Amino acid sequence: MIEELRESIRDDESFFYFLQEKASAGYAILHPGTAKLSYISIGLLNLLGISTDWRESPLPNSRSFEVILKFYKESKESSPSEEGLEFEDTQKNIHKFSYSIRPFPSSSSLSDQILVGFTYLGRQEKSKFSGTIEELESIMNSLVDIIFEVSADHVFLNFWGNNTKSLYFDKSTFLGRKIQDVFDENSGKQFADLVDRAISTGETQIIEYPSYIGKDRFYSAHFNRINSSVPKVSIFIKDITSRKNIEINLRNTNQRLIFLDSFLRYTYDLILISDSKGDLKYINNTASQRLGIPLDSFENYNVKQFEPLFREEIRWEEHLKFLKERQVIKVETENINIITGDAIPVEVTVRYNEIEGSPYVIAIARDITERKINEKVLRETKELLEKTGIIGNIGAWEYNLSNKRIYLSEVSRIIFSDMNQEFRTLEEFSDLLEGKQSKDLFNNSILNAIQFGNNFDLELYCRDIHSNYKWIRMIGSAEIKEKKIYKILGVIQDITNIKSSHIELEKISNRLKIAINISRFGIWEWNPSRKEYLPDLMMLSILPTSAGMYENLFDVWEAFVLPEDRVLIEKHFRELLEENRPIDINFRINSTREQTKYLRMIAISFQNNHQETIIGTTIDITDEKLREESLNNARNAAEIANTAKSDFLATMSHEIRTPLNGVLGLTEVMLETELNSDQKIYMESIQKAGTSLKVLIDEILDYSKIEAGKMTLENISFSFEKMIQDLIYLFSVDAKKKNLSFEYNHSGTIPQLVKGDEYRIRQILSNLINNAIKFTNTGTVRIQVSCQPLKKETHQFLVEVEDTGIGISVESQDLLFQKFTQADTSTTRKFGGSGLGLAICKSLSELMGGTLSFLSVPGRGSLFKLSLDLEEVKLEPKSNPGVEKPNLETFDDDFLLVEDNDINILVVQKMLKKHVRTLDVAKNGVEAIQMALSKNYKIIFMDCQMPEMDGYTATRVLREKENIKTTIIALTANATDDSREKCLGSGMDDFLSKPITKDSILNMIKKYSGD
Asked: Does a cis peptide bond (omega within 30 degrees of 0) precede residue 103?
């Protein structure tokens, strides 16, 4: 019951004054509802003639208590004042005393009971302060350190305290003296004014102040008016040094950390710090924005969540081991911005550090978009390149040397989540502490307090009965009676929040120190009003050696910054000071070796002790600038080389294809004439050699386009099944010549039409089938097509080309898709080929979003797999000639051939002799225009490069004529995409590259001769 009363006093100071003024003779706690006494002080037992066996008994037969209970019930119905009522009574005509009734508030655990105070009328003038009871003294020990009683004229009347030595108080210094005589003039006046104000207003006056003697401690003082016949004031003094020191230290530390954190948090570089498990320990704003990681919960993330490479634990362990050996790794990669979805090229510096034995991995990613753009251009042209915690509840504890037990108050038990066990042994309490250090600290402090009376103030790590870990502050003081220590008492405070703030601040400090050390930022501070410039060691290492001699920041700029950049710096500093606009600029300085350095500076302004202060960072970016210059120079050189290469390829293509067109064209014409067997063999050999040369030229041009990133793909509808049938028909002849079994199977439903680049898919499959036949002497070549539906209208096509040929050696398999590569040199001699075919097929399949893979066993054969995802369409297929059977159709129309090369004229004339009504010839663009104006041609076959007027100009002139609607087909020896676009851009309808075949030109006529 006494503990509940103590709690009420702590919650409401009016209870303390009630006991002080209304219970000088003692007090009792009554339960009106049950008519029982809950508690009675020992002094009243004899005074009222009540038996000592009063607990849980009916109300004693005492007229005093009967009157009290009766009056309380009557007055309660008429809503008595909160102060209770007073009246006089006489028991056995011996004593005369007054009673005061004080109800407990509804929030109290004693809300259904009343507190009754007793005062002897003959002793009313005795000092209320000196008459407090022993229980009240015990309560006050845990709440305050010193209590003074002061008269209205500022004289110290009485004194009580439990910590006078450390607080520099002594009775002789105060008792009987005035406040103004004890303290200095200002302090004495301040205290006297507070006494006057407490008496005049009746309100508690509170002040916090530093020690007037030791100067190293802080106190709080509460001034309360004592309601008595003579006005008095009680002053409660509490030592708050520990709390004030924590507040000051945390405030100063937190301010510095905030300043340092702002530079890393708002830098454009992405910064991550993780532990050895990959758990994030620090990220800045840039990392939060690009990776989509909230700043307030980043510690819930792991590197493996956004870096697929490390999702397998073994990969992370290997990376950590490698990093530990190398200490620093610098790589370039791409970082996906979660907000925009853009892939940002970054330069990542990863460093391994151990701080106090704990490993950390620090990664700094710098946006190198501009540099990567230059590199991309170069690649395309060259190879187509605490908080402070809040103080929690305060609980009391007491260790009694007589029974060897620690008493824990209700709040103390709440801290340990154990409301049942009010008393514990030292061993039981020590078991609640976690770790040897906390246990030893507590046990040694208790022992010293018992033996020598030493006070202690400890921070201990503990766990409650639910195994929740927390930090507590435990203050203890020895109580002495008759020159013997008989108990140790004090308070327990949950400081988990404060301690967590300390630990968190320490973590932040460590992270910032690590990050600053890794990033090699130079940090400096400048006070403009004092002209004080404070650089750190890293800053001094960045600047020339002599920069350390200067005390003013602007003197440093004046001495070392290039004049044209100095103006920029001064402008930004003015904006910072006048508009509080942060600085982030690059500038140049002259180093001691007469070499220009490039630096980047970031700075902000803040108020420090009411003075404008600028703090900033500087980093040397000279290497980055030099790399950019080198890349620009290399890019320019590569662009020149690429232009020369393109011009060369275009010229060679034209110069080779023009005569090749004559060779292949006339060969094809000759093969349609009557030839003897030898002549036919000779002509077929010429045709085969010419075709091989054409394939080689096409492959070189294709790979050149792929390397340059200029390969464009069509996306038209076509019949996949028809394309496969055409290929089977085409290659079955070659397989039959070698007596090979040529098989074709398919599974799944193949859509009637799909969308994609039929020409390039046909090119890939032709290469694979041709290779299978070429490298197989006996056995089988098998084509297997399977089709599986995916989401929406998309289907996955898998084409397998399997043979029983020579296979590929193990050592050559890794090189198979590289350019100009075959299994071995003997393969080239025996079978021919450039070594570009499979490299082109691999690149084309990837450009279409597919894959090309293979399995091979030397001596047993190979299996190539092409996988493509194609969209099903319901449109009619775009006409694509594919491979046609021999065309015997004739066209009853007039055609015009515009060509300056006599051999090419002869080739076309022979090819079309039996298929068209007339074929007129013009030798240049001028003649072509004249003939087209005089005759209505079905189709004009237009060469592009001719004397007098080329085909592009002639086409544009004809398209300007409103009456000329003739179809114009380009005939060009330049097979590049640029040439095709140029032809179509000039107004031509279609495009045929030389060397042309009879089937290709007939298919083109058929395409544009329909009604």
From this structure: no
The partner residues of 205 in beta bridges, in order of sequence, read 223
Residue 659 has pLDDT above 50, yes or no: yes
* CATH code for residues 152-239: 3.30.450.20
Q: Token pair for residue 232?
A: 């008095």
108-112, Cβ contacts within 8 angstroms, sequence gap of 24 or more: 108/4, 108/7, 108/8, 108/11, 109/4, 109/7, 110/4, 110/5, 110/8, 110/29, 110/38, 112/31, 112/32, 112/33
If you average pLDDT over residues 625-643, what whole number do you get?
Answer: 81
Domains 2-123 and 891-1008 share a fold: no
**CATH 1.20.120.530: does it fit domain 246-382?**
no
Predicted TM-score (pTM) of this structure? 0.35
Look at strands 990-993 and 967-972 and give their pairing.
parallel
Answer for the pair 627, 371: CB distance below 8 angstroms, yes or no.
yes
Task: Tell me the domain boundaries of the chain.
Answer: 2-123, 152-239, 246-382, 396-493, 520-620, 720-872, 891-1008
In the CATH hierarchy, which fold is given to the domain comprising 720-872?
Answer: Heat Shock Protein 90 (3.30.565)
- Identify which of 932, 929, 925, 923 has the alpha carbon closest to the alpha carbon of residue 905: 923
Question: In this structure, which amino acid lies at residue 663?
Answer: V
What is the mean predicted confidence (pLDDT) over 520-542?
A: 78
Of 498, 8, 432, 45, give the one whose Cα is nearest residue 253. 498
- Measured from the Cβ of residue 788, the count of other Cβ atoms closer than 10 Å reads 13
- Do 66 and 89 meet the contact criterion of CB atoms below 8 Å apart? no
83-119 tens-digit pLDDT: 444 434 334 445 556 677 888 887 777 888 888 877 6
CATH of domain 2-123: 3.30.450.20
Three-class SS of residue 998?
A: helix
Q: What percent of the chain has pLDDT over 90?
A: 14
Span 319-351, pLDDT tens digits: 777 777 766 777 777 665 555 566 777 777 888
- Residue 869 to residue 851: CA distance in whole angstroms: 10
Q: Which fold has domain 520-620?
A: Beta-Lactamase (3.30.450)
Q: What are the Cα distances from residue 169, in Å, to 148, 160, 161, 165, 205?
A: 11, 10, 9, 6, 21
CATH classification number, 891-1008, choose in 3.40.50.300, 3.40.1280.10, 2.40.10.10, 3.40.50.2300: 3.40.50.2300
Q: Give the bridge partners for 203, in sequence order.
A: none
Place of tokens 């300043």: 259
810: left (phi over 0), alpha (psi -120 to 50) or beta: alpha
Question: β-strands 532-535, 522-527: how paired?
Answer: antiparallel
- Alpha carbon 150 to its chain centroid, in Å, reads 62
Q: 143 with 10: CB under 8 angstroms? A: yes
Q: Rounded to the nearest 5°, which phi and psi values hold at 333? A: -150, -165
Q: How many CA atoms lie within 13 A of 520 on its CB side?
A: 10
Number of neighbouring beta carbons within 10 Å of residue 820: 10
396-493 CATH pick, 3.90.650.10, 1.20.1250.20, 3.30.450.20, 2.40.10.10 = 3.30.450.20
Residue 622 near residue 597 (C-beta atoms within 8 A): yes
CB atoms within 10 A of CB 3: 15
Q: How many other CB atoms are there within 10 angstroms of residue 633's CB atom?
A: 10
Phi-psi region at 594: left, alpha or beta (left = phi > 0; alpha = psi -120 to 50): left
| pLDDT tens profile 781-816 | 999 999 999 887 899 999 999 999 998 888 888 878
- The neighbouring-strand residues paired with 920 are 896
Residue 906 CA from chain centroid, whole number: 71
> What's the CA gap between 672 and 907, in Å, rounded?
13
User: In sequence order, what E strands does 263-321 have?
Assistant: 270-275, 280-283
426 CB burial (10 A radius; 0-12, 13-18, 19+): middle
CA-nearest of 9, 24, 1 to 100 is 24
Q: What is the pLDDT of residues 437-487, one digit of tens each?
A: 999 999 999 889 888 889 999 999 888 888 888 888 899 998 888 788 888
